[in-house]
Amino acid sequence: MRSIRECPICANNIVSKLYTQKFAQTDFANGIRLLPETYDIVVCSNCGFVYADTPLDQRNYDKYYEYCSKYEGQENVSSGGMSASDVLRYKYVIMQLKKAIDKNTEILDIGCANGGLLMELKTNGYVNLSGLDPS
After folding, report:
1. How many distinct structural domains can be found in the chain?
2. Interatomic CA distance for residues 96 and 100, integer angstroms
3. How many CA atoms lie within 13 A of 79 on its CB side?
4. Boundaries of domain holding 113
5. pLDDT digits 0-9 by tens, 93-134
6. Going by C-beta distance under 8 Å and a sequence separation of 6 or more, which residues neighbour residue 73?
7. 6 neighbors 12 (Cβ within 8 angstroms)
8. Dihedral sign, CA of 123, 128, 134, 135?
């Protein structure tokens, strides 16, 4: 199928659909909707890159995250802040990781929010860290 957006890596527009992402709708102001109700997650037939095939440009997403991000407040778990519950949870996770892996092991935190756990891992000497968050 043809994508709405070109592949960000190779500019190809022939893709295979992997999944349709559906969102709960949030109105910004005066009934203006910043994000689409759905978009497809696609894989490029040329280079294999997986990306969101959305009709919106980066400005829409920047505006959405500026005004509607659930990760902005420091009081939120994993917001990048360090609430008492974050500190306890991160210490427990790191204690468990120390038993199973060394500090050079590649770690991917899926659902990392603003990277609170990744920051704590880095502080504890872990070096191969990556984060992925669908939001």
Report:
1. 2
2. 7
3. 14
4. 84-132
5. 999 999 999 999 999 998 887 788 999 999 999 999 999 886
6. 79, 81
7. yes
8. positive
